[in-house]
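ok, trying the design again with the full structure, not the truncated one.
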């Protein structure tokens, strides 16, 4: 075993014991098996890190396999997005890229094998009748009237299903197990259904498609997977997984279930995420408010921050909800060390320094990142006209307001002390400009006579400012668990109307004109931002706030 990078957990305990007894010749072979019916989200990232991480830690292998058994929901566009996300997260499946559709002929042969063993039969019950015959948790089911069809008749009907002789839903192939089983999944489940739909890879070759529960175990078996790691909702399906493999006497992987990731203020169902996209509550799967990997990437999250998050939350046997600030802290911790600091003013208020020379521009030296001196310094232009944040000035300041007001002196970051002397307003009484004076002896932000100020403001030189659009993102939902609603209302009633704020004409340091989309900066006092990967152009960058400097959401809710 290589030096383990992942934390120890109950799954690594199982793997360690398997290696100790030389099970599967001490091999470790896992897989990440997404269905290509949507974009991957942060929950999938946990599974990706777990499966690829285990393979790496034990000198094993991990396959990327697409469970494409349902042509009604799957698209090649989803396949390409999933491959991009897994690769972006830093994982390499090398030559081990597989599809369930690669095995359609084998699945058909396994179904024939079950029919010949009198372990599967063609059933003509419609879905409503099947539900009625199935029974309930406290009530056994009853056998289908077609359950004892002769083997030859079942083989003929199944062949005719494959040949396209019957309409969708007219017949299904069911496993013959136990209609009185306390596990509803074992009550003669459907294993093949008729779907006259074109498959994104197989084309029109097939009009019958296997159910996931039937295909999934055989996919693992064909690929000689040793540890088939699934989320907890598949625990009750494990007896069925085992039954299919035992009846066909093929290689038998071990299915192990772990707790899926639930994140506060977030929905993780691909069906619900698709609803958000289709109903245009968001701009697409990669909307920066979405928990999708592509949305997080566009917002400015890095592969390292997501991998660190998955390592921090660990692997558990029981479902729980992780607070979203744990995810946010993972990117804060990284960007605090790696992101360059710059100054930006999102809601600009002009400041004119009346005693500063009109034709003068000087360059102020600013630190790129105090956490990493190797990043060095940069030159920031300073002139008579500047911009500060509107909220950094109050004409009639309240008791705990220490920033700029009439007659008060404050420090401008890296530069000088200034004092406000006059407030200029428009015809409607709105403050549009401040007239201030500066003390030239305070260059660098310190006073030679030792006087102190209570506030330091960030600013941008008006003459050289880069004007851009900035988007502020907040949680997509207002409730910790958005799926909890009253009176049967849809989860979308819990959408946060303030999840996106678009600010035009923001004033940014001129260095940001050269920003590379996806690379984060810290806007001092404001948070971490990056140029948008989708909407930025060479001539007009758009900046997204990745995360605030601290967890302000918890404070807002407390207040």
């Amino acid at each position: 075993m290589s030096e383990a990078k992942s934390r120890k957990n109950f799954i690594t305990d199982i793997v360690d014991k398997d290696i100790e007894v030389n099970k599967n010749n001490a091999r470790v072979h896992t897989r990440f098996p997404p269905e290509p019916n949507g974009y991957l989200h942060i929950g999938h990232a946990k599974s990706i890190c777990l499966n690829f991480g285990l393979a790496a830690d034990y000198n094993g292998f991990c396959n990327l396999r697409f469970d494409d058994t349902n042509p009604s929901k799957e698209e090649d566009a989803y396949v390409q997005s999933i491959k991009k996300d897994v690769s972006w997260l830093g994982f390499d499946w090398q030559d081990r890229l597989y599809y369930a559709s690669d095995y359609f002929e084998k699945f058909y042969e396994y179904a024939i094998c079950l029919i010949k063993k009198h372990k599967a039969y063609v059933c003509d019950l419609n879905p409503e009748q099947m539900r009625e015959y199935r029974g309930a948790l406290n009530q056994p089911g009853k056998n289908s009237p077609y359950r004892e069809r002769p083997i030859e008749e079942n083989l003929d009907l199944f062949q005719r299903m494959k040949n396209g002789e019957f309409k969708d839903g007219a017949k299904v192939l069911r496993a013959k197990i136990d209609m009185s089983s306390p596990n509803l999944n074992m009550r003669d489940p459907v294993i093949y259904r008729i779907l006259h739909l074109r498959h994104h890879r197989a084309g029109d070759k097939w009009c019958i498609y296997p159910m996931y529960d039937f295909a999934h175990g055989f996919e693992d078996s064909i690929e000689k997977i040793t540890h088939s790691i699934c989320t907890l909702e598949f625990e009750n399906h494990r007896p069925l997984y085992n039954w299919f493999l035992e009846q066909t006497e093929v290689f038998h992987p071990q299915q192990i279930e772990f707790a899926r990731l639930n994140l506060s203020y977030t929905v993780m169902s691909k069906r619900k995420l698709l609803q958000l996209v289709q109903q245009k509550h968001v701009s697409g799967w990669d909307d920066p408010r979405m928990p999708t990997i592509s949305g997080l990437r566009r917002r400015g999250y890095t592969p390292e921050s997501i991998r660190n998050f998955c390592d921090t939350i660990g692997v558990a046997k029981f479902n729980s909800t992780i607070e979203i600030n744990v995810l946010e802290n993972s990117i804060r911790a990284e960007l605090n060390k790696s992101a360059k600091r710059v100054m930006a003013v999102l809601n600009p208020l002009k400041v004119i320094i009346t005693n500063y020379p009109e034709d003068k521009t000087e360059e102020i030296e600013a630190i790129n990142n105090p956490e990493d001196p190797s990043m060095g310094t940069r030159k920031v232009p300073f002139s008579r006209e500047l911009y500060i944040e509107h909220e950094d000035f109050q004409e009639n300041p309240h008791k705990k307001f220490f920033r700029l007001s009439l007659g008060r002196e404050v420090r401008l970051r890296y530069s000088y002390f200034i004092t406000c002397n006059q407030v200029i307003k428009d015809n409607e009484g709105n403050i549009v400009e401040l007239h201030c004076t500066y003390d030239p002896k305070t260059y660098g932000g310190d006073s030679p006579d030792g006087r102190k100020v209570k506030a330091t403001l960030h600013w941008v030189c008006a003459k050289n400012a880069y004007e851009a659009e900035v988007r502020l993102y907040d949680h997509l939902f207002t409730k910790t668990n958005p799926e909890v609603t009253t009176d049967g209302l849809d989860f979308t009633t819990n959408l946060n109307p303030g999840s996106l704020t678009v600010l035009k004409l923001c004033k940014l340091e001129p260095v940001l004109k050269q920003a590379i989309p996806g690379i984060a900066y810290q806007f001092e006092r404001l948070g971490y931002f990056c140029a948008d990967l989708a909407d930025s152009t060479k001539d007009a960058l758009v900046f997204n706030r990745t995360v605030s400097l601290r967890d302000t959401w918890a404070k807002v809710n407390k207040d």
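Keeping the full-length input from now on. The CA atoms of residues 107 and 215 lie 7 Å apart.
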